[in-house]
């Protein structure tokens, strides 16, 4: 995937329709998540669409997340969220201001409230997961 800064720069130059397309493309680029991992335990609560996030411990203390959604735009949003934390150490993820990193995208102004209502829950799940790995 592109860096968050590159995505942000591209996003800033696009009109609303092209921003939707960019989010959809980001979602399509996500690593596939096996259906067997899409369970109640990996489901993010409070999202209008179904969103699943599954942590995979990587090399050393790094975390890699698999994620998916049944809605193309929402899948793009989770891809954007993951870009802020993917393959980073758990303690760094727990300390990352994910919402702050996403603020320049102004998603709440670009998308309907239904599309953005689950973002805080996605972020909370990722931070809680990283916190558990940090404590372990």
Helix content: 40-55%
Range of strand content: 5-15%
Could you tell me the CATH topology label. Answer: Sufe protein. Chain: A
Q: Could you give the order of strands across the largest sheet?
A: 1-2-3
Largest sheet: 3 strands, antiparallel
N-to-C SSE series? HHEEHEHHHHH
Structural class by secondary-structure content: alpha+beta
Measured between the Cα atoms of the first and last residue, the distance is: 29 Å
What count of domains describes the coordinates? 1
Q: Which architecture would the CATH scheme give at its second level?
A: Alpha-Beta Complex
Total count of helical runs of at least 4 residues: 8
* CATH class category label: Alpha Beta
Low-confidence stretches: none
Mean pLDDT, all residues: 90
């Amino acid at each position: 995937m592109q860096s968050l800064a590159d995505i942000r720069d591209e996003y800033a130059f696009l009109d609303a329709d092209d921003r939707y397309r960019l989010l959809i493309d980001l979602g399509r680029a996500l690593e596939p998540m096996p259906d067997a991992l899409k369970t109640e335990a990996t489901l993010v609560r409070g999202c209008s669409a179904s969103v699943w996030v599954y942590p995979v411990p990587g090399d050393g203390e790094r975390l890699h997340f698999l994620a998916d959604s049944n809605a193309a735009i929402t899948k793009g949003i989770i891809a954007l969220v993951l870009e802020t934390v993917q393959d980073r150490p758990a303690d760094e993820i727990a300390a990352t201001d994910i919402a702050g990193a996403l603020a320049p995208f102004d998603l709440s102004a670009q998308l309907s409230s239904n599309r953005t209502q689950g973002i805080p829950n996605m972020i909370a799940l990722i931070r809680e997961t990283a916190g558990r790995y940090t404590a372990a």
